[in-house]
What does this fold into?
Amino acid sequence: MASTAQPAAHESGYFTEENSADVVIARMAGAKDPRFVALMSSLIRHLHAVVKEIEPTQAEWMAAIDFLTRTGQICSDWRQEFILLSDVLGISMLVDAVNNRKPSGATETTVLGPFHVSDAPRRPHGFDICLDGKGEPLLVSGRVTDTEGRPVAGALLDVWQTNDEGFYDVQQKGIQPDMNLRGIFATDADGRYWFRSSKPRHYPIPDDGPVGQLLAAMGRHPYRPAHIHFIVAAQGYAPITTHIFTPDCPYLHSDAVFGVKASLIGDFRRVEAPPALTAGQPGRQPEWEVVTDFVLSRA
Ligand code: BEZ
Ligand code: FE
It folds into this structure.
C-alpha cells in the first residue's frame, strides 16, 4: 500500500481558480522578512485579480511575457527601460508622492529621470551653463529657504536640462560639449543662487524600444514638457528632486511621465532691461528670465 506523505499546513490544499492567490501566498510561510511577505502577498493578489478580470488567452499572456523580456533585453548601463516603464505608468510619480508628504510650504518634488550625472562641475554664480551658446539665453535665479522663510546658505543646486533642440548632452556625445547645460551652484549667505542657461525645449523620452511601442499602443505621445531639473540639497535638510517647467509648452498638460505639478510651473518672462545680476560676467545677455525659490524642510 502506497504511503501518503502528510503535507505541512501551508502546503495543504490544491490550487484552484477560486483559491489561487491564497494558495500561492500560503507557500511563503518560510519567508523571513515580513515587509517582503506583505509586498509579495499584495502583488500576488493584484496580479491574480487582473487575470480573473481580463481572462487573457495563452497568446495574450505570451505577448505580455515577450514585452517584459524585451524590456529587460534593451537595458544597458545607460538605458533603463524598466524605470521608463514605471515612469509612463505613473508608478514613479506615485512612489515619489508617498515618500514626499512634506510639511506645507516645502517645494514639491517630481521625477529624477535617467539623464542626471553624478559628476557635474561646480560653477560660480552667474555662470552660463550653455557651453555652445545655442538657444535663447535665460537667467535663472532665486533663493533657497527653510519652511520659516530663513535663507539656507551653502545649499547646493545640481542643475541639468536639454538644449533648445530637446537633447541632453549625454544623448549627443560629440555633438554637444561634455557637461553642456549642467552645473552645481552653491547659495550665498542670503540663500541666493543665479546662473545663465538657454530656454529648454520639450523632448520625447526614449521611445525606440518596448516602452515606446506600449505608448503607441495606448494612443499616447512620448513627450515631456520643457523643464529644468534640480536637486537641491543642504546639510540638515531633506534634499529635493524637482523641476521648473516653462508655462508655454504644448505638452504641459500631457507629460508622458506625469511629472507636472502646478507649483512647479515657472514664471518665465522676456527680459526688458539687461539684469544687474550678470554685470561683469562674460557671455550672453539673457533674453528670458525666471525667478524660482526652493523651500527645504528639516531632515
Ligand atoms: C527626464 O526628465 O529627464 C525624464 C524623466 C523620465 C523619463 C525620461 C526622461
Ligand atoms: Fe528631463
Observations:
- The chain has six helices and eleven strands.
- The radius of gyration is 25 Å.
- The longest strand covers residues 137-146.
- The mean pLDDT is 93.
